[in-house]
Each structure stands twice: as C-alpha cells, then as structure tokens.
Amino acid sequence: MEIFSFVDDVKRMDKRQAIYQVLNFGMIISTALMIWKGLMVMTGSESPIVVVLSGSMEPAFHRGDLLLLTNYEEEPIRAGDIVVFRIEGRDIPIVHRVLKIHEKNDSYVKFLTKGDNNQVDDRGLYSPGQLWLEKKDVIGRARGFLPYIGMVTILMNDYPQLKYFVLAVLGFFVLVHREN
Amino acid sequence: MSNTVPTDDASEKPIKINKWETNALKNALDDACKKYFKEALNFTEDYKLMDGRLYISLIACLFSGFGLIYDWLNPFPKSRSTLIICVIAYFILMGILTVYMQFIERGRFYAGKLVDKTGIDPISRCTISSKLKKYDDKYDLTLEYNDGTNKATNSLQNISKSVGNYFDENGVLCYDRFTSDVKKMYDQARTSERKVK
Prior knowledge:
The complex is a heterodimer of chains A (180) and B (197).
Chain A: H1 2-12, H2 15-43, E1 49-51, E2 66-70, E3 82-85, E4 94-103, E5 109-114, E6 133-134, E7 138-146, H3 151-158, H4 160-176
Antiparallel strand pairs in A: 1-2, 2-7, 3-4, 3-7, 4-5, 5-6
Helix pairs in contact in A: 2-4, 3-4
Chain B: H1 22-39, E1 44-45, H2 48-73, H3 76-105, E2 108-114, E3 124-132, E4 138-146, E5 155-162, H4 175-196
Antiparallel strand pairs in B: 1-2, 2-3, 3-4, 4-5
C-alpha cells in the first residue's frame, strides 16, 4: 500500500517539483563524488580508500579491512612501509610491505615487496622481466585502517546483481520521496 | 473508501495518503492550498523562489559533473587543480543552498499574484508558508497578503489546527473543509488589509 502512495505523490508533483527531485538525486550523488575527489586531492593518492582482498598481510590486515592511503611526494618510501601498488597491465591493487630499496642521489627509488603472510617475495607477481617496483606503480602508503567494513564492498563485487539492485532501489526511493 | 466524490479525471480524485507520515500530510495540505489558490481564487503562481533553489542546485551539479568528466579525461595527478576548484565550489554552493533554504525560503511554498482582469485594481500578492513539526499534528499555515496599493504593509493571517480536522480515517483529504478554512483566512487577510488603511 505504501508503494502506491508514492505513485500518487509523484503524479501530484508539478514540473518544477519533478525537476527538483531529479536535482536532489543528482546532489546526493554529487556530494558523495565530491567527497571522494576531495579525499583524492587531500591525500594525493588516486584511490585514497582501498579494501584488503586477500590474507597475504595477516596478522596485520585481514580480508575485508578498509585502508586509508596517502601518497605525498615529500615522504620517501622506506623499507618496512606498507604500500599499495598496481602492477602494470593489471587493475587490482596489491597491499604488501617494502622489503628492500635501492635509492639514487636524484631520489629515484626502486623497491621489492613481500606480503607478511607469504613465503616468497613478490617477484613472482610482477610482470615478466620486472624485478623491482618504481614510485609510479605506487597508489599510496597505508596510514590508517578500519576493520571489517570493507566486507560490504567484497560482497557487492562478488554478487554484482546485489549491487545494482541495492543502488536501483535506493535511487528509486530518493527520486520518489518528496521532502520539503 | 467510504467517501463518494465525483471522479471525472485523475486530478479530481481525492488525495489519499498515509496518515501517519508527517511529510505526506504536509505535502498533501500544501498541494491542496496551492490548488485552491490557483483554481478558485485565480492566482498565478510566481516561481521565483523555487527557481532560485533549482538554479543553485543545477549549478552545483554542473560543477561536480564537470569535475568528474575532467578527471576521467585527464587521470588524477594532472587534474588536481581543477578538482580542487570543483570540490571547493561545490561545497560553497551547498552552503549557499542551505542558507537560501533556511533564511530566504523559510517554509514558503507558494507565492502568487492576482492580476485583476479589468486592470483597475493593483496587483495583489500572496505568500504562503507552512509548518508541520515532525511528530506533531498541528499544521500551521501562514498567509502574507499584500494589497498592492501600499507595498510596505503586509497583513499576516494564520491557521493553526490539527491535521485531524482535514483528513478522515483512511487518510483521504477532505478538500472542502480545508479550503473553507483557507478561504476564511484569505478573506480575513483582505479585510484587515483594508482596515489598516
């Protein structure tokens, strides 16, 4: 019955009200978007919040943890830092610890990584012929974390229909609900 | 439904809403008030207030859309300065919108003017605002009436009644009861405006 009352409400809306509903929807999306872009600008990283997908960093990070990253130019990468990097050609970022660094005087660095819970270093993961990672592969360094919250993202990615369904239902309710 | 009302077309059907939902109640009453002013009293609606809100929202959305597209075309480090501008502009506009809705709109959902066909009487203006607190049943309708003869004086009239007066058991709006109260308020406003002069 309540769904039908929404339909009547929508029919009673005049043109300007309808435009405002659409703009309201747009503003909610824009607010989320602008907060994300704002975080990108503040942290200097192209993906300031990532979810840990595997258990290769246990016991520090578990699958489903949320990580906050920063990527400031002035802070050099040192052995022991936990970095999130992307290997060229693959789009899933990896969270591992820096093992070894080679640094030149002009601050060019190359480094080797390994997951805390892995037996071997990451050379097996790099592209064929690649032995070291460079600064350009790095998305950021882990600065803070929130446990468990990323499980929602993992669920949504495993069941994409669930994601579209939830988004569609939320979008529908925002468009239809009149609030003055 | 127990009410029998002649139903010629969809717009004449009595409004039925969820009577426990405060927002639906307020919206239904506001809509009925607007309808009454438009149809019975022949006011033409002045869209300036609503348009202001729409323009601010539109510009805010445009800024965010522009930031999104620019960043998509020029991946992150290059788009940094544009993004900063867009984000700051967006949040400033959000602030402006909040201020606008809080102080300039102030619950006013209708502004109308009555243009006399003979052209003798000056244009009279009405601004109506309403308040209905979240879990309260007192609907407060305020009418600000200006005769047009003296721009400075406005007469304010106000109805503050329980919504139970206007909705029946099933949540159907009793349009006639509501509009008779609105008409009384409007007439009071007109006569008090004349008395002031």
